[in-house]
Design brief:
Strand order of the largest sheet of chain C: 1-2
Oligomer: heterotrimer
Structural class of chain C: mainly alpha
Order of helices and strands of chain A: EHHH
Helix content of chain C: over 70%
Number of helices of chain C: 25
Helix content of chain A: over 70%
Chains: A mainly alpha (104), B mainly alpha (172), C mainly alpha (643)
Number of strands of chain C: 2
Radius of gyration of chain C: 31 Å
Distance between the termini of chain A: 62 Å
Number of helices of chain A: 3
Largest interface: A-B, 74 and 92 residues
Shape of chain A: elongated
Structural class of chain A: mainly alpha
Radius of gyration of chain A: 18 Å
Strand content of chain C: under 5%
Shape of chain C: globular
Distance between the termini of chain C: 90 Å
Number of strands of chain A: 1
Order of helices and strands of chain C: HHEEHHHHHHHHHHHHHHHHHHHHHHH
């Protein structure tokens, strides 16, 4: 094996960048499905951070945690998309700005 | 320039590119495909870190199931290109700068405090067997709870997505 | 040591009567109510008589301790009663005259729908008055003091559905309270400087003090403040205004409370506090001056009044002034003597006036009376006796007491004597005016087919005599007015009260001869007042109108009681009401207090109105807020970590 290294901070920066993109996408995008995908992007960024730290600290629990995150993401995606379908049926739109009945 | 680093940068570039593309594209299907690319690149990153099981699961579950679900829904709803509508000023004015500030601060912290600790390639092998040991011993309870969670999610998805009249028929 | 006299029974018996009539009277028959009321007040009188009979066997002063009340540090005040010669005189007057008036009221109030309430209040009044008289400390006296004020309010406003009666009740109580303020401050001073309110202790502390001749000082202050209280209760200048209005109440009330007993409470209090006053010459002078001025002032108003009860009211104010003159010149026993005789003849005058009013069907204006002596001879006879008494014609009661006062006043200053003499003339004049206008001449009234005393009606034709139940008290009081003054002959009354007031000083430079001369002068003055009234209201009845016209504006001023009520209203009442309305209500209450509360609510609402915009229902703005907030939290955590 070639002895080499990548500093931990690189992984973390990448993870942070992915997360930031996810947040910005959430804020900018209007299509609700795209917003959902930004959430998935955020979760992925966090997963990367988990795995990087697990490797850094030699704690396998980090990877197990990623497993759980994925499960939750899956469940959330399923239910969330179901809700989007239901919303689409009544509202006929996927534009999140037009789903604002919960205002005061 | 080590091989490790090159690989890292390659996968990283795909990630970054996919993420930016997700933001840039107007049609959701393009965004979905970019996201799939990101996930695939992330699987590569996991492999670099030695988490082979996680990488496999990432591809199978995330990219293979969740994203497919997304694509199905996009096609089902026939989502078109985004229109420009009046958005929220707060989101743009407050949220984006806020997020960027937070990210920059975090990055600064990360850089200051975790400068040059090396993470060697394949640093922490994660064979399925070891993960399974952990999963079914220390993390048994979360495991069981998660299974219940999935069950509930299935039921929820079915109920929410079903047509209203058939939901009334299925009231039991 | 004395065996217990059970003095406490004397006030408690009327209280029991008041309670029984008050709670059960509404459903009871008139006879039952009457029995209860007369029994309890009669019992009190009987007990008072019994105490009087045993009086000479007592060591005085007699204390009767009932219960703890206040123990606070070194100050203590208890429920305790006290009996000495002064209290005995007051006791007999109050219970005796009170009982007679109870009997009279049975007849007078018989047709009133609130019969039971009247007697309940009347008994309640007796309770408070007796507490006042028998108290052994200022605090229990104050209970009685306030209580009689309350009873007076209740009784003046007895026909409370009538606006004027309700207002009169309020006026009496409120003006009384003004006087009570002075009384209270005097009590506070006493507590502060002497540590006690018990008569014995206070007077013992004061006795060694030398008179304050400098005109200022603690005792002078206390004395003047006590006098303020007395002015309120006994209707002296400047707080007399409530007494004429109090005539709105039923006539027995006027007789009992506003002639014989309550208004004399002030005189009693001043006499009881004589130890204080004797050492504060300035305060004494103030008392004398107030008394003199009031006597004269009220008498002048009485000349021009046409309502029979109002004349008597101003006459009461005037006679009370005499009592205060007596106290003010140090002749306390003379003041008490006049108090006693006044109770007889003024009580009689009021009761007889009630009888007159009853006879003419509720009319109180004297111009609509006249010639009644043939219709109501007994009333005429008794009222005549009372008029002679008050005018000071010997040998009736009023002569002895009034003359005693004038004589003592003369010994201090001829000014007091002169004004008192002029007032006696005016008194005689307006009393005989009342007599002539009411009983002589032709009857000017309408033939009444309804009659009552202001509230009920039963048909009759012409004026008729009152029933025996009303006449008997009149006769008894007339007898007392005839002979009551004789206890004063030879200074017997004064000697009787000497243990309380101290022995009288030897007269300076005035001899017995002067005394007889002055007696003759006062008799002459009284007779000339009679003659003038005879002239103006019997012989030449057209003269008064001509004189009134000639005097024009001045006469009008007198008729309108010198506009004192109007002046008070403008100077005190109106600014108070205006200030309350404009400043306290609209400015302070509405704009500051209400506004503070309302603005707090409004402020909360406005804040929430602004905050509401956060809840736009727009998911992206929520996300934006979250992102911004998380950035703040991250920054905070980093900052904390860096530190």
């Amino acid at each position: 094996m070639v002895q080499s290294y990548v500093p931990l901070s690189y992984y973390l920066l990448l993870s942070g960048f992915l997360f930031a993109c996810g947040v910005v996408g959430f804020l900018i995008k209007r299509n609700i499905i795209t917003i959902f995908m930004s959430i998935e992007l955020m979760l992925n960024g966090v997963n990367l951070s988990f795995v990087a730290f697990a490797a850094h600290w030699h704690a396998l629990a980090g990877q197990v945690f990623v497993f759980f995150v994925m499960v939750v993401a899956a469940a959330e995606a399923a239910v969330g998309l179901a809700i989007i379908i239901a919303v689409y049926r009544t509202r006929e739109t996927l534009n999140v700005d037009q789903v604002n009945l919960l205002k005061l | 320039m080590s091989f490790h680093l090159i690989l890292f940068l390659a996968f990283g570039a795909v990630c970054v590119g996919g993420a930016v593309n997700l933001l840039a594209q107007r049609h959701p299907i393009n965004s979905a495909l970019s996201l799939i690319a990101v996930m695939a690149a992330l699987a590569g990153e996991y492999l670099l870190l030695g988490a082979e099981f996680v990488a496999a699961v990432q591809v199978i579950v995330y990219a293979g199931a969740i994203m497919v679900l997304f694509v199905f829904v996009i096609m089902l709803l026939n989502a078109g290109e985004e229109e420009r509508t009046k958005g929220s000023r707060v989101a743009i004015l407050l949220g984006v700068p806020g997020m960027l500030t937070g990210s920059i601060l975090t990055a600064w912290v990360v850089l200051r405090h975790s400068g040059t600790e090396a993470v060697p390639i394949g640093a922490l092998p994660g064979p399925p067997k070891e993960i399974a040991q952990l999963l079914f011993h220390e993390f048994l309870l979360p495991f069981e709870v998660t299974s219940v969670l999935i069950l509930i999610a299935i039921m929820g998805a079915v109920v929410l997505a079903s047509k209203p009249d058939s939901a009334a028929g299925k009231a039991d | 040591m004395n065996s217990s006299l059970n003095l406490w029974l004397i006030p408690i018996l009327p209280l029991a009567g008041a309670a029984i009539n008050g709670f059960l009277g509404k459903k009871s028959s008139r006879q039952a109510v009457t029995t209860v009321a007369l029994f309890f007040s009669g019992a009190a009188f009987a007990m008072a008589l019994w105490v009087a009979l045993r009086f000479s066997s007592l060591t005085l002063p007699y204390h009767e301790y009932l219960a703890h009340w206040i123990r606070s540090g070194s100050f203590s005040a208890d429920f305790a009663f006290y009996l000495d010669q002064l209290s005995l005189v007051m006791l007999l007057v109050v219970t005796g005259v009170g009982f007679l008036i109870h009997i009279y009221s049975v007849g007078y109030m018989w047709d009133d729908p609130s019969y039971y309430r009247f007697f309940s209040y009347l008994n309640l009044f007796m309770f408070f008055m007796l507490t006042l008289v028998l108290a052994n400390n200022y605090l229990v006296m104050f209970i009685g003091w306030e209580g009689v004020g309350l009873a007076s309010y209740l009784l003046i406003g007895f026909w409370f559905t009538k606006d004027s009666a309700a207002s009169a009740g309020k006026k009496a109580f409120i003006v009384n309270r003004i006087g009570d303020f002075g009384f209270l401050i005097a009590l506070f001073l006493l507590i502060r400087h002497f540590g006690s309110l018990t008569f014995d202790q206070v007077f013992q502390s004061i006795t060694p003090m030398s008179p304050e001749t400098a005109g200022t000082g603690l005792l002078t202050a206390i004395g003047i403040l006590l006098m303020v209280g007395a002015c309120g209760k006994s209707a002296q200048i400047p707080l007399y205004i409530w007494l004429p209005d109090a005539m709105e109440g039923p006539t027995p009330v006027s007789a009992l409370i506003h002639a014989a007993t309550m208004v004399t409470a002030g005189v009693y209090m001043v006499a009881r506090s004589h130890v204080i006053f004797e050492r504060a010459p300035t305060a004494l002078t103030v008392v004398a001056i107030i008394g003199t001025l009031t006597a004269f002032f009220a008498a002048t108003i009485g000349i021009a009044q046409t309502d029979i009860k109002k004349v008597l009211a101003y006459s009461t104010v005037s006679q009370l002034g005499y009592m205060f003159v007596a106290c003010g010149v140090g002749a306390f026993s003379a003041g008490i003597f006049h108090l006693m005789t006044h109770a007889f003849f003024k009580g009689l005058l009021f009761l007889a006036a009630g009888s007159v009013i009853h006879a003419v069907g509720g009319e109180q204006d004297m111009r609509k009376m006249g010639g009644l002596k043939s219709f109501i001879p007994w009333t005429f006879l008794t009222m005549g006796i009372a008029t002679l008494a008050i005018a000071g014609i010997p040998p009736l009661a009023g002569f002895w007491s009034k003359d005693e006062i004038l004589w003592k006043a003369y010994q201090v200053s001829w000014v007091y004597w002169l004004i008192g003499l002029i007032t006696a003339f005016i008194t005689s004049f307006y009393m005989f005016r009342l007599l002539y206008m009411t009983f002589f001449g032709d009857y000017h009234g309408v033939q009444v087919d309804t009659h009552g005393h202001g509230h009920d009606a039963h048909g009759h034709g012409e004026p008729h005599e009152s029933p025996m139940v009303m006449l008997v008290p009149l006769m008894i009081l007339a007898a007392l007015s005839l002979v009551g003054g004789l206890v004063g002959i030879g200074d017997r009354f004064e000697h009787f009260l000497a243990p309380v007031f101290g022995a009288t000083d030897a007269v300076e430079g005035a001899s017995h001869g002067t005394e007889v001369l002055l007696m003759g002068v006062s008799v002459a003055v009284a007779l000339s007042g009679w003659w003038l009234a005879y002239l103006l209201y019997y012989k030449r009845p057209e003269l008064p109108q001509k004189i009134a016209d000639a005097l024009g504006g001045f006469y009008q001023t007198v008729v309108h009681k010198y506009y004192v009520d109007e002046i008070y209203a403008a100077v005190f009442v109106k600014p108070l009401i205006d200030g309350s309305t404009r400043i306290l209500w609209q400015d302070v209450d509405r704009k500051i207090i209400d506004a503070a509360v309302n603005d707090a609510g409004d402020g909360a609402r406005h804040v929430s109105d602004e905050a509401r915009h956060m809840q736009s229902g727009n998911i992206r703005s929520y996300a934006g807020w979250i992102a911004a907030g998380s950035a703040v939290v991250i920054a905070f955590m980093i900052w904390m970590g860096v530190r």
